[in-house]
Amino acid sequence: MHSLLIIGCGSIGERHLRCFQKSGRAIVTACDTNPALLAAMQERYGAAGYATLDEALAAGTYDAAVICTPAHLHLPMAQTLLKKGLHLLIEKPLALDLKLVPEVREAITAAGRFVGIAYVYHFMPWIAESHDFLRSGALGKILHASLSAGQHFPTFRPAYREIYYARHEHGGGAIQDALTHVANAFEWMIGPCTQLFADAAHQLLEGVTVEDTVNVSARHGDILVNYSLNQFQAANETTFLIHGQLGSLKIEVHARRWGHLLAGETEWTWHETAPLERDDLFIAQANAFLDGLEGLANALSTFEEAVQTLKFNLAALRSVHTGLPIVIE
Ligand SMILES: NC(=O)c1ccc[n+]([C@@H]2O[C@H](COP(=O)([O-])OP(=O)(O)OC[C@H]3O[C@@H](n4cnc5c(N)ncnc54)[C@H](O)[C@@H]3O)[C@@H](O)[C@H]2O)c1
Looking at residue 99, what is its pLDDT? Predict the structure, then answer.
C-alpha cells in the first residue's frame, strides 16, 4: 500500500481522494485550508486531515502527493514536496508562467521521483485508442486537424464565480481551464504546437470577466490545426477531426467513440466504449500514477509535455492580449 497526501480537497481533490481509495493501492490523507472540507473528507472517506501542507508533512510520512490546489500553487508546492522525496501527481494546468519550471525540472532529477500531470484525457479510451492508431501510421502523414468543443459550464460548475476560474492569476478563464485539456490531447496525439494566433472574449457567463470563448489557428509543426471552444453552449460536445494523407479520424468525446474513414471508403468505422462512470477515468489515472511511481509504463502526461502545454496556454493568452501570432520556442 502506498501512503498518499491529497493537497486541496475541493472539486477535483475529493475525486482524486475517492479514486485513489477505490484503486485499493493507497491510503490517503487529506490536506485543505478549509476546515469544513477536511471534516467532510473524514466523514465521507475516513481520511485523516491537516489544515496546512507543513502540518501534514510534520505529522506523517508519505510516498506521494497529489497537488489539487489552484494552479498558482502547483509548482511552489512541488518544490517543497520534491525536497521531502515524494512522487507527485500535479493537476492541470502545470502553472501560470514558466518562472519555476527550470528549478522544478532540476528538483525532479535530483529527487529521482516520478512526476505526472493529471491531463485526464489520456485516460479516455477514445483518446488513448486514437493516439495509438495515429502512432501506428494508419493515416500516413497528418496534414490538418480541428477541434470543436463546448459545454454549459455553469451547469457543471455552479460555483464557477467563487473558485479559481474567475481569475486568470489563479488559473481561470477558458484558455487555462478548458482549452488546455484539448491542446494537451492534440499535442499528445499529433505533436507539439509550434505557433498560434488566438482570439478570445467574454461572451456570456455571468459574474466573471475572464474569456469564456476562444478560437485558435495553430500549427503543430507542418500540421494546420483549428480550435474552437466556448463554455456557454447548451450542447456538451467535443469533437476532434484529424486528416492525413491516407484518411481521417474523428473523436466524439460526448459519444465515447472514435472512428476512421480511409481513402476510398464511404462510411466511418466506429469504435465505441460502453458507458462509464466519471470516476472510472480518474481511477485509471490513479492506477497509472501508482504504476509510474513503481517504475512501470504508464500513459500520464509527463512534466515536459505539460511544460509544452503551458507554453501553448501562455502563447494563446499573449496572442489574445497583443493581437499577434506567437511562435512557441
Ligand atoms: N483534471 C480535471 O478534470 C480538473 C477538473 C477540475 C479542476 N482541475 C484543476 O485542479 C485544480 C483545483 O481545481 P478545483 O476545481 O478542485 O478547485 P476548488 O476551488 O474546488 O478546490 C481547491 C481547493 O484547494 C484548497 N486550497 C487552496 N490553497 C490551499 C493551500 N495552500 N493548502 C491546502 N489547500 C488549499 C481550497 O481550500 C480548495 O478546497 C485546478 O488547477 C484546476 O484547474 C482539474
Answer: 98
Domain assignments of the chain as residue spans, ordered by start: 2-120, 122-274+301-327
Instruction: Please state the atom number of ligand 1 nearest to the C-alpha of residue 118.
Output: 1
Q: CA-CA distance, 96 to 93, in Å (whole number)?
A: 7
DSSP 166-186: G-GGGT-HHIIIIIHHHHHHH
Fold for 122-274+301-327, please state it: Dihydrodipicolinate Reductase; domain 2 (3.30.360)
Mutate to test the pocket of ligand 1, among 69, 153, 162 (most ligand atoms within 8 A of CB): 69
For residue 32, name the pLDDT band (cuts at 50, 70, 90). very high
Does residue 30 line the site of ligand 1, with CB under 6 A?
A: no
Cα 135 to middle of ligand 1, angstroms? 33
Ligand 1 contact, 69 CB (< 6 A) = yes
Main-chain dihedrals φ then ψ at residue 68, nearest 5 degrees: -125, 25
**What is the CA(36)–ligand 1 centre distance, in A?**
15
The secondary structure element, H or E, covering residue 21 is: helix 11-23
What CATH architecture does domain 2-120 belong to?
3-Layer(aba) Sandwich (3.40)
* Percentage of the chain modeled with pLDDT above 70: 100
Nearest ligand 1 atom, CA 12: 16
